[in-house]
Amino acid sequence: MNLQAYLLTILAGATYLSATAQVCYLPEKPQIGQTVSFTYTPQGTPLAADSTIEGRYVYYGAPTTMHMSRPATVKLTKQGLDYVGQVYVPKKDAAGIMLMFRNSMMPQRNDIRQGRMYVIPVCDASGRMLPHAMGGQASVYNRTNFLYEAGGRADPNWVVALYEYEIRQNPDVRPLYWSDYLSAQIKQRKPGYGPKVKAGIESYLASRPSPTANELNTAIQLYESMGDFVKANALRERIKTLDPAGSLAQKDRAMAVRNQPDWTRKKAAYQAFAQEFPNSSYLPALTVMMTDGYFKNNDIRGLVAFVEQQPANHIDVLMLNTMAFQMADDKRALPEAEQLVKRALTVLKTQAKPGNVTGDWATEKQLRQRQLMNTYARVLEQQGRYPEAYTAYQEVMVPDDVDNSDPRTNERYLLCALQTNHGAEARPLAEAAIQIGKATPRMKTALRDWYAKQPGNDNAKADAYLTELEADLKAEQRDELRELLINEPAPAFSLTDLQGRTISSAALKGKVVVLDFWATWCVPCIASFPAMQQAQNRFQSDPNVRFLFVNTREGGPLQRVHDFMNKHPYEFTVPLDASQRVANAYKVQGIPTKVVIDPKGRVRYRHVGYSGDPVTTVDELTLIVEMLKEEK
Asked: Which residue range or ranges hold the Thioredoxin domain (predicted)?
């Protein structure tokens, strides 16, 4: 006798726990509304040596009543070697109770009857098990975590047998179990399961005069789980024929809107979709896509009109914020940018928690409010409406949290404050930002210049004021940079620059020399040039500091370097290292590479790459140069 037949033979008898050695209960055939008393004997189980034992149970019934299968604890009373407890059978929906036992102090120690649990099926007045008394057990295995939380795994053969017994005993429940039964056979993976499951799908659908869209969708999922996408797609077409306004048809139409490359046609397709399916679950995402499309197609007036027409749940406030801020930064379409951010602020006030927000919505909402107000302030500032911008910035700034502030926002706040004669009010935050490195160079200069104009001050006092503000931060930065310093001999070199002049290391003796190895094709090299120009500018009046931008690894005609420098207004001295001899001598592994040589002719600093942060690059190089100048 094979295992399946064996299981079917024993199911009817083995289900009653009175036949087991561990559990017995009364009444033997409980009915709804009754209290069942049971006795658990742990001898011969994993809990035989335990003294703190409790029961855990779930009710079960039809697959449509899984809400009642939430685990609960039943207290047990020890009587000799046994434990006694009671559970009540609800008057509605319950077809049985599944029990397991565990050590209440160490829940991982438990008795789950080798994964089958202990089962108390509910009966009718004649003593016959209720419908779902068997199939409902399989639903607990497949649709809840009750067994998994106890560290067990369902036996696929047992699950299939439970479903088969249920369907044979109660044929009218087949519509509730057919898909779970076939899915269990797929998990069972017995030889020949594929044709058998496909035959089961076809047999079930054929037995239904008019299969529902849900049934067809379930069949699609079963086919796809076996890799039969041809039959799955055929059913999709059938669904769309049966329900031309259903989810699958909407999905296809939505995809057609997404894939339409022509912007004019895309707008028309979207409008048609919105009119035909105003309540479609696909519409909010399509609306966000169209919002992005208006922006990318630079149809700003159309964008504003479109956004104003949309309900709040179709609007992505963070997307509008990004668009408005970019427009403000570019100083274009500022009235429209203002309309967009105002719309976003209005939506945020009543917006429900989005599905992609996992944390506390009140906290996240407050953060988004500050982001939007920052953009609103930026828009106002760019329109020259400084008093309004300053008021808006005050809602953005958090004086007690300067550590997490943005240097650019700090800069804009101070500039607006100075424009509106609120310098004294903004001064504490600006000073704190400078002291912890959250200030831009422009912000530092603005505060310094404002301070110089205050009564009793002058430029010298202002310089000393700024130096004092930065003193602790620079000391920390110097300490960190000292850890990066090296000490190697600087190889001698002699190169010719773009003007035909000879540049030699011998002529630079006694100076701090910054070498920047680069090539015209190197994107990070070019990206770092604005920062390098700023760094060079800081020492343009210092005869003891030289910057050399050594072109190397060019791999092309010399004219390309001339053309690049003629096109860009950098005031660089560009020696040519066509043979890479100097780059190799200075251990250049990749470009850009910055090398700093001290006045004694020693290589003290080498850095490969560009971080993308111009402020950090300028400040770091400046400190390195100043440190080397100060060395005796």
From this structure: 484-630
